[in-house]
Amino acid sequence: MSQVDIIGAVKRYGDVAALDNVSMSFKDGEFFGLLGPSGSGKTTMLRAIAGFVSLDEGEVRIDGKDIGATPVYQRNIGMVFQNYALFPHMNVQENVAFGLDVRKVSAADQRKRVADALAMVRLSGLEQRKPKQLSGGQQQRVALARALVTRPKVLLLDEPLGALDKHLRQEMQIELKRIQRDVGITTIFVTHDQEEALTLSDRIAIFNAGGIVQAGAPAEVYAKPINRFAAGFLGEANFLVGQVAALEGGWAKIDLASGGIAVIPGEGIQPGQPALLAVRPERLTIHPGDDGPGNNRLCGTVSEVVFSGNSTTYRVRCGEQSISVFRQNDGQPVLAAGTQVTLYWEPDDAVLVSA
């Protein structure tokens, strides 16, 4: 297990800064998710740690040592790619043992370490199979065993579950988390899947335009996004535009452009300033009927209903704005399109974000 520190990382491709003076730390033994849109810098960061990309400026340190000049094969880093990169002509045992063979590990030690690695990923008994004889999930676990068998300091995962179908991907999330906990290795992974990042990560960082928009524990970043990009990228959010009308008793009252008044904690807020609020669809409560004016409520008309078995998503037209509402199906009747409704939320469920 090791700590990885990135200090002032800069990587340019022509006029484009893939990494723009990025500094961050990955703690010993943690599972850290990097997510963001294509071209945001997350994959460049991963490849810089691996040694496939040389930084124009800055340092990559493992346990305090700058490894910028260290060749890829000497960094003692394990990596799993999205397409697994297994050797099709080798069987499972040979694939997993490849890194040990390159390192001149004795045959007896190879057999033991390969057996232990396959037991860890629950593939014992499949040593003689070729990759084409395995399912996608099994191939992913072979790639993981191959990365771990050399006992690396750090494990890097590049979209590790991206090639799997949804059901198998959810199963492998649980397996991947179990294995990482059992081994205790510092793990850094790139994903575009928000649910995957929230499920697996101890901490996450949202990248955009070569920089970090926000980093922290998944629950913290999800519940308290700092700006519109973070709120909209990690999950779905409704954005309410308004202006701070008054401060009373530690609360800020905001006149909403879509109608009504929102009340939020008033710390750091000044009367008259413009306000942009983010409210998650699952934090809204929907009831049929028009309850009229009030704090933290909007009246509107259901314009669309999306039934998903255990839940229903409503699109509600409130003036000129469309609001998304997510509701678990708990026996209440599903509201039909055209129904007049009132939406409610608690003051702490509306987060003031920057544009």
Automatic annotation (TrEMBL):
Signal peptide range in chain numbering: none
Catalysed transformations (reactions): ATP + H2O + polyamine-[polyamine-binding protein]Side 1 = ADP + phosphate + polyamineSide 2 + [polyamine-binding protein]Side 1
GO molecular function per UniProt: ATP binding
Known EC number: 7.6.2.11
PROSITE patterns assigned to the protein according to its UniProt record, in alphabetical order: ABC_TRANSPORTER_1, ABC_TRANSPORTER_2
Listed transmembrane segments: none
Domain ABC transporter intervals: 4-234
InterPro entries xrefs: AAA+_ATPase, ABC_SmlMolc_Importer, ABC_transporter-like_ATP-bd, ABC_transporter-like_CS, Mo/tungstate-bd_C_term_dom, P-loop_NTPase, PotA-like, Transp-assoc_OB_typ2
Enzyme class: translocase
Keyword tags: ATP-binding, Cell membrane, Membrane, Nucleotide-binding, Translocase, Transport
Self-association state and partner proteins as the record states: The complex is composed of two ATP-binding proteins (PotA), two transmembrane proteins (PotB and PotC) and a solute-binding protein (PotD).
Biological role stated in the UniProt entry: Part of the ABC transporter complex PotABCD involved in spermidine/putrescine import. Responsible for energy coupling to the transport system.
Family recorded in the similarity comment: Belongs to the ABC transporter superfamily. Spermidine/putrescine importer (TC 3.A.1.11.1) family.
NCBIfam families: potA
Name of the protein in its database record: Spermidine/putrescine import ATP-binding protein PotA
The encoding gene: potA
